[in-house]
């Protein structure tokens, strides 16, 4: 990581109090969501908005944020890491809060594409674990109106050009024993309609952008069928999808797999794949 990029800028998502605020006083996460910008030495026009994981009770800004930016920098990809709000922090309509921040981040980056030297048509997303759930919702629910427009940026599309999802939660209809994402996002007794609304597998359409999925088969928290289920739904609707099932890697590996594991090459594979799908 000798040539790792530095965060050159951080900006707020909302000009005033975010939708659904103010939050609880004893919150776990931020009350002012931000985006950290990581510029590569030689940007090539591609950009990716990153949603780190953390089970919707924290946001892994380093392991699944800054370190991801460092892994992608050699390939010319500009990275925008989102410190999104947490649904457990007392916001109104808690379940919409992460998606509000996700859509707003995509739109704001598009609004300032020239400033960041990216092509707005080459802006995608990445998500990890619970951030992978948020990413899966971002690629399937980009037209959902979850907040009132606040400025010109909100007239722009929130549809990503592509989606990279790593050990993601893709459905809330089934709850793995060790995953708390559904409860933390929706609360203890969510309505069936809300469960479906935030289950990406149920919402894939022909307009869903191309997907890149990566999951370890020995993941003890989010089982790999979360990825295979989404891949199956995408293929059934003609959506381009590439999936890598790793023999080993566990959960939360980010960009830190040992070099003797094939999964450690995912940044290069992802970079090649995004280049193919943004021509």
UniProtKB/TrEMBL annotation:
Entries under InterPro entries matching the protein: AB_hydrolase_fold, BD-FAE-like_dom, GDXG_lipolytic_enzyme
UniProt GO molecular function: hydrolase activity
Region described as Disordered: spans on this chain: 1-40
Superkingdom of source: Bacteria
Keyword annotations: Hydrolase
Domain BD-FAE-like stretches: 47-232
Protein name, entry field: Alpha/beta hydrolase
Species, as recorded: Stakelama marina
